[in-house]
Structure formats: structure tokens, C-alpha cells
């Protein structure tokens, strides 16, 4: 059976690819998209989600807007990486569907509580504000979620500070809540996603599709490449967020290692750091793990196939 997921995101170039992958692979049942302020402000990322769904011919997927700001801290966006719109580099089509009337946090809670236990997976690819709020508002969801697979963090590297990744440092208090709930949690962090590079060979594969969606993705990669070259010194851009979706489609694409995880909240130089304890085999009952190795070719095959499938919808 297809995995039922809620994609909690802040589109975002790589979030857009994650939406296309989640909607285009038969192993995934995308039951809804929730948006959170992150890569850009909440109104911008919500509009972006609706526009991507139009490009991907997934307009039946509902979208619910969530938290516009972190639990405690000031709003911070990633304009240097994603541009003023959050999806610079492409012409965004006008949405043809509207945002749902419910708050994203309530949609998350209602969906989990109204489905059978262990049938809904949460896939956050932005700051963890919505997820943290949901489990605080209704703690029972922690026992009913099948799994949380998040893009964020890193056990050896950061990008917004020396040790902290953007999604975590934007709202470390929410991340601390999410990491310390008893649900099964997989952290797909920078150590893994920096292996998911959109190389010229990958772009050739996508370009060969010759569709509106493939040209849209190439436009995203063009802007993303320049931003990453200028801001972080990458020759080819890492496409982070689809890695979390790919793991759910085919777990063999991503190898993992169990380890206790936590989030630093108080360090002068380390706020937002995700701390993985690798000192010994994970203790019995450990519910958290980290992604460590990506099958690059298999990953991109999944993405290319999902882009190609858009034309058949």
C-alpha cells in the first residue's frame, strides 16, 4: 500500500521538487500539504505550494497554511538562497485552487486522529513549528504517527552557522520538542543531502523529458546553482528535501544509523545544533536515527521518473 504522508514544507526550490516527487510516485499517497514560514514568509511559501501543485498537475491535493513565525524567536528567511519569492528563477503560474480554511496544525491533528493508528507519516522539510505545535496541542498524535521523516539538521555539519542547519536554527525550540517525542524519527540532514547534487548529468536526464514540468525544475536548478555557488561555494546545488521523500519510497536509497538525537538551545555558538550520540551502539528502545549514505543514481532515477509521470496525469 502507498504510504500516506503529510508534507509540511516551506517552498523553496528543493521543497518544490519534494512535492513533485511525492505526488508523482505511486508508493506515496500525498494526503495533504501544510506550509510553515521558513525559506520565505508564510504567504509566499503557501502561494508557491499552490503554484507547484498546478505545474505538477496535483491540484486535488489540499493545502493548509500554518505557523508564520517560530515559537520564540524572530522570523528569519533564506532569501539569499531562494530569492524574494522563495522560488526565484521560474515564472510561477497562478494557483487554480485555494488554501484550506483550517489551520495546518489542526489539519495535521485531525488527519492523524481520524485515520487508523500508524498509517500517517509526517514529512517536515521546513522549520518544525507546525509539528511541534501539533504534538503540544494534541499529545496523542505521538503514539498514532507511523513515522516522522524530516529534512533538517546534520550530525557533522551546518549551513546557517558552523554547526546548525537552517530548518533547525530558525525554530530550535520546536525542533527540540519534535526530537524528544517518542515517535519513530529519521533525521535526513546535511550529511546526507549534500550528496544529492544536481549535476549537469542529472539536468540532462531531466531536460530529455521535454515537458513543462521538467523545464520548471531546470529553472529551479539554474537559480539554485548560482545561489549555492555564491553563498556556500558548491559547484552543483544540493537538493535537500526530496531525500526525505525518497527514503519513504524506497528505504534502500538511504542508509541510516540509529542514534539518540537532541537539539542545542543554549550554547553561545551552537544554538540549533543537532547532536547525535554515536559513542556506542544505540540503547535499547532508541526511536531516532540519522541518514548517512545516499544512492545518488537511484535517488535521481526516482526524481526523474516522477517528473516524467506528470505528463500522464
TrEMBL record:
Keyword Hydrolase tagged: yes
Gene3D superfamilies in UniProt: Ribonucleoside hydrolase-like
One Pfam family in the UniProt entry: IU_nuc_hydro
Protein's name according to its UniProt entry: Ribonucleoside hydrolase
GO BP: purine nucleoside catabolic process
Domain Inosine/uridine-preferring nucleoside hydrolase: 5-301
GO cellular-component term (any): cytosol
Keyword Hydrolase: yes
Domain of life: Bacteria
Taxonomic path: Bacteria, Bacillati, Actinomycetota, Actinomycetes, Propionibacteriales
PROSITE patterns cross-referenced by the UniProt entry: IUNH
GO molecular function, one term: purine nucleosidase activity
Keywords noted in UniProt: Glycosidase, Hydrolase
